[in-house]
Structure formats: structure tokens, C-alpha cells
Design a protein that fits this description.
Length: about 575
């Protein structure tokens, strides 16, 4: 009978037994060459490093911290810690010595595993203040030969200790894996600490696997697929979308040579799934536009002729419009002539799952990616709440973050705060029970995010609750969300809302002169200047339609009741 696959090391063991040397598990680029590792390679690295940690004294429930880039040794070290029934504490690579000291000290980490000299030096700067740290273990050799301290050792040396340990403790690795339970802690992820010192969220194996499996109901990932692995391992989203799906489905992880080589490496990888934040996707759009500017005359001409057609389709897709047959045929032609080449240059020809998370991605970026045939899908989750919602392939509404995932319940409190009840919630804050009890009440986690649920059951993220404004009635509303929703219109260039302490919300609006001008010409509306056009009743009615669109997504008390269409643009 197959054992219950409720921990990450159990999944790793299953994959090793299933695929061994027959399938590639991990690819890493170094000095321009791709190094491939089978499931057997991964398993043996994890096994002997884990046994080495046992020989150094790591006990169940103890912590070990890791700081370094996305490289095989990072992930193998983490799996090894967990296989020893220890807990991984992930640090961001740009953490300064004081931040390292706080997290390592607060988590009571026994070992620190660091990539290279740069990270080791940061640790040494505060090492005297970390009496509980017994070993610093590095995995990249460059610059490390000069260190002679007895508490500094290498990844390979720890593996050798593990091989010796196995001789006197046969099957210790396998016994540890089999004995572990899903409710045991896998990781402590430290939040950003925007409202004070970072808090360590305790995440169990069951929560990580459950969140990933729930998310995979949106994406039919397979063992043959390639996952791009480049986001910080200290961010829980990286685990949900790369590390854990890699173990659950057996998909291949692919890491970059350097952050600066991302576009070239993606071209070589041609990944099937990419997760990025708004900044990453905006970078892709900027790269496309820069490439076009560098292109020759004919290529640039083709782009300028055909891209507007593609963008119209992207906008229509974004707004949920059903395209007529003639438009679909035209888009197929544009795709054949132009868009396939763009996707090929970006390495996105095989990308079936383009995912954006972290914060709401701009509508222009979403529309552009849609226009080139890369369907961006928004997902929503958090360190404490796990994965919460996401777009299904047949229901992508740009202004939402999708319906709740299987097993996840979502409510909105009377104050407009998003509340989550889920089997994948975090288990508490390390050494901070008071903070946990403030955010989790009656099994519901209060997210601190403001939002609403639309008629189709999609969750709409508005802002942080602390950023809400309040009407004189006490009703709260989200100024930034309303303003960005208004700017979503092609006819509104900018908008400001006023309502704090007032009876209702009022919008001050700048029209988009170029787009409204084109609309006026199509509708045979004559005008002379910006001021003249902005004061036309027909234009006011046009803007009113967009206000009505936004109001449909707001509660009755927070809807825009008054608006002013300015006769001139806002000052820059």
C-alpha cells in the first residue's frame, strides 16, 4: 500500500522510486552550459546532506536557515532539512547583516546554509551575536579557501559526513521520511515586516502541498512540463508555484544562470509555466517594445501595421467580449505574420500558463500580453492564507483575482476586509501567539486586504484595509481602486476621488483627449479644443457609462454619486 504523500520528502522519495535515472528533475545553467540532474541525482544529494546534518546534531523540529540564489543546492538543502524532520527558514539574498541576525536569532536556527563568500561575510559580521548557530555551510567554492574557522564547512563535506553516518545508521534517512507527518512544520516564512519587525509564519507540509494541489486544479501541469524557477525561495509564492508542483507533478525545475540572463535563458528553456509579479510582466512588455525600436525598417513597419489590430483583440479578450468570426480570422493572420515571432523571441512559444501574482497587474500589461497570445491569469494568495483564488482558463476577468480555489471559503466583513477559512492556513506566528490570535478568529483569517465579491463569484482586491477612506456615514471605500478602475476606461486618462468625511464619493475626471477625439469624429461630433470637447453633453454621457460600469462593482453606499469632467488636464 502506498504511503500517504503528506510531506515534501515523501513526494521526493516517490519520484525517485518512480523515475530514478530515467527522467530529468532539475536543470541549472552555469558558465553557459546546462547541467541536468535526474531524480536519482536529486535524491542522493538530499539523502547524504540530510544524513550529514543528522551527524552534526540536527534534531526533529530544529531550524536551519538558508540564504542564496535559486540553485540546486538551495532546494536540496531545504529538502534535506525537512527529510531530517527539521524546519527550513528562508532568507532573502539581499538581507543585510542586521536582518540576518534578527531572523536567525528569532528562529533559533542551528545551522546557516549560505551560497558563497558574499553571504558568509554578512553572517560573520553578526556571528558573535548568534550563539546558537553551530555551523555555517557554504556550497559555492569561489573565495572560500581563505576561511579557516572550524565552524565553517562546505556542502560537499557535509555530504561526506552523511555517507559515513549511513554506515553506522543504515536506513536512517528513509525511516525519518516515513515517520514524518503532514502536520509537522516544513518552513517558517518571514513576512516583510511593513508594520514592524518581520513575523515568522509557520507553514506545515500539509498546507504547502494542499495549497499547491488546489492551485493545480487551474493548471493541468504534467511531468513533461518545464517550470521556470527564478523568484526568491524566501517568498512563499515560489513554493506554491515551483518547488511544490515540481514534487507533486514531477515537472522539471529550471534555474537561471544570473538574474541578468533571464530573457536569454527563458529563450533556451521555453518554459510551460511562468509565475511573475507585475514588475516582471511589465519588463517583458518593455523588452518587446525595445526590440521593435531596434528592428529594421520592414520589421518595424509590419509591427506598426499589425500590432494595433492585435491590441484591439487583446483589449476585447480582457473585457470578456466574444469576438466575431471575421475578427478571429484576422487575428489568426496577425498571429501567423507577427505574434508567433514575438513569442518565439521571448521564449514563450510553449508557455501554457502565464501567471501573475503579488499585486494587481496593470490592465495595459494584461491587454498587451493577451494581444500577443499569452493569456495572463491572476492568482491571489499570501504567506498566512495559502493560495486563495485564481482565474480559470474559461473565466478570466481582468479586474478580478478569480473565484476561490477548491476547499477555500471567502467572505467580506462589514468593514470590507477579505476573510479566509481554509485547511491550508498557516499554523501560527513563531514566538508570537498574540499576533496570531489577532488575525485568526473563529477559524477565519482576517487578511488585512479590502475587497468584494462580484455577481459571478469572483474576488476583487481593492487595497489594504489601512488605505481605505471613510464617508461621514462611517462606510469605508477604496479610493485607489475606484481611481484605477476608472482609468481602465479608454476614455478616462486620470481620475481622483473625494469622499473622506463627506456624504458621498465624488470623482474628478480628466478625459483621454486622443481617444475621446477619435470617438467624436466617428460619431460626427464637432469640437474645437480640449475644453470644448470636455464640456459636450455627449462626452459627459460617455464618461457616465464608465462610471456606471465601476459602480456596479461597489456597494450602494460607496458608489460615485457625483462627478466633474474637468475642462483641462491635471498638472503633471
Amino acid at each position: 500500500m502506498e504511503m500517504q504523500l503528506d510531506t515534501l520528502p515523501k513526494l521526493l522519495k516517490r519520484n525517485f522510486e518512480r523515475w530514478g535515472n530515467r527522467e530529468i528533475a532539475f536543470r541549472d545553467k552555469d558558465y553557459g552550459l546546462w547541467n541536468e540532474y535526474t531524480w536519482k541525482d536529486v535524491y542522493e544529494n538530499v539523502k547524504y546532506f540530510s544524513l550529514g546534518l543528522l551527524s552534526l546534531g540536527l534534531k526533529p523540529g530544529e531550524r536551519a536557515a538558508i540564504i542564496g540564489d535559486n540553485e540546486p543546492q538551495w532546494y536540496w538543502s531545504s529538502f534535506a532539512i525537512q527529510a531530517a524532520r527539521g524546519i527550513t527558514v528562508a532568507l532573502f539574498t539581499d538581507a543585510i547583516p542586521d536582518e540576518i541576525q534578527y531572523i536567525v536569532e528569532h528562529s533559533d536556527s542551528k545551522f546557516i546554509i549560505a551560497r558563497d563568500q558574499e553571504q558568509v561575510d554578512k553572517i560573520l559580521a553578526v556571528y558573535d551575536k548568534l550563539p546558537k548557530v553551530e555551523k555555517i555551510i557554504w556550497w559555492y567554492w569561489k573565495g572560500m579557501r581563505k576561511y579557516e574557522q572550524s565552524f565553517i564547512t562546505s556542502y560537499e563535506q557535509v555530504k561526506e559526513l552523511g555517507k559515513k553516518y549511513e554506515e553506522s545508521h543504515p536506513k536512517a534517512f528513509e525511516k525519518n521520511i516515513d515517520a514524518a507527518k503532514g502536520e509537522e512544520t516544513a518552513n517558517i516564512f518571514y513576512t516583510s515586516g511593513t508594520t514592524g519587525l518581520p513575523k515568522g509564519a509557520i507553514i506545515t507540509h500539509r498546507s504547502l502541498i494542499g495549497s499547491a494541489e488546489s492551485t493545480l486544479t487551474l493548471f493541468d501541469l504534467t511531468q513533461k512540463d518545464n517550470i521556470l524557477c527564478y523568484l526568491p525561495p524566501a517568498w512563499v509564492g515560489e513554493a506554491f508555484f515551483t518547488t511544490v508542483p515540481h514534487l507533486v507533478m514531477g515537472a522539471k525545475l529550471n534555474t537561471l544562470e544570473e538574474p541578468e540572463t533571464i530573457f536569454h535563458d527563458i529563450y533556451e528553456i521555453t518554459p510551460n509555466m511562468i509565475l511573475g509579479g507585475p514588475r516582471q510582466w511589465e519588463g517583458w512588455v518593455s523588452k518587446i517594445r525595445a526590440k521593435i525600436e531596434e528592428a529594421g525598417g520592414l520589421e518595424k513597419l509590419v509591427y506598426k501595421m499589425l500590432m494595433p489590430m492585435a491590441l484591439k483583440v487583446g483589449k476585447a479578450i480582457e473585457e470578456g467580449e466574444k469576438l466575431p468570426l471575421w475578427r478571429r480570422i484576422l487575428h489568426w493572420f496577425v498571429d501567423l505574420i507577427l505574434l508567433q515571432a514575438i513569442r518565439d523571441k521571448l521564449g514563450l512559444t510553449k508557455c501554457r500558463f502565464a501567471i501573475t501574482a503579488g499585486s494587481v497587474t496593470g490592465t495595459d500589461t494584461m491587454a498587451f500580453m493577451n494581444s500577443i497570445g499569452v493569456r495572463l491569469r491572476q492568482v491571489y494568495g499570501s504567506t498566512e492564507g495559502g493560495m486563495i483564488s485564481g482565474h480559470r482558463s474559461d473565466s478570466i476577468l481582468t479586474r478580478t483575482i478569480g473565484p476561490p480555489l477548491p476547499g477555500v471559503e471567502v467572505r467580506v466583513s462589514g468593514d470590507g476586509e477579505i476573510m479566509i477559512r481554509s485547511p491550508y492556513l498557516f499554523s501560527g506566528y513563531h514566538k508570537n501567539q498574540d499576533a496570531y490570535e489577532k488575525t485568526v478568529r473563529n477559524a477565519w483569517w482576517y487578511s488585512g486586504d479590502a475587497g468584494t465579491i462580484d455577481e459571478q463569484g469572483h474576488l476583487i482586491y481593492m487595497d489594504r484595509v489601512t488605505e481605505l477612506a471613510q464617508l461621514s456615514s462611517g462606510e469605508k471605500y477604496a479610493p485607489q481602486w475606484i481611481e484605477s478602475s476608472l482609468r481602465f476606461s479608454q476614455y478616462i486618462k486620470d481620475a481622483i476621488t473625494v469622499g473622506e468625511g463627506k456624504e458621498c464619493v465624488t470623482a474628478i475626471i480628466n478625459m483621454d483627449y486622443e481617444n475621446v477625439g477619435r470617438w467624436a469624429e466617428r460619431n460626427h461630433l464637432t469640437y474645437t479644443t480640449y475644453t470644448d470637447l470636455s464640456q459636450k453633453p455627449e462626452v459627459s454621457k460617455l464618461v457616465r457609462e464608465d462610471i456606471d460600469r465601476v459602480n456596479k462593482q461597489l456597494t450602494p453606499m460607496t458608489r460615485i454619486r457625483k462627478y466633474v469632467l474637468l475642462h483641462k488636464e491635471f498638472d503633471p
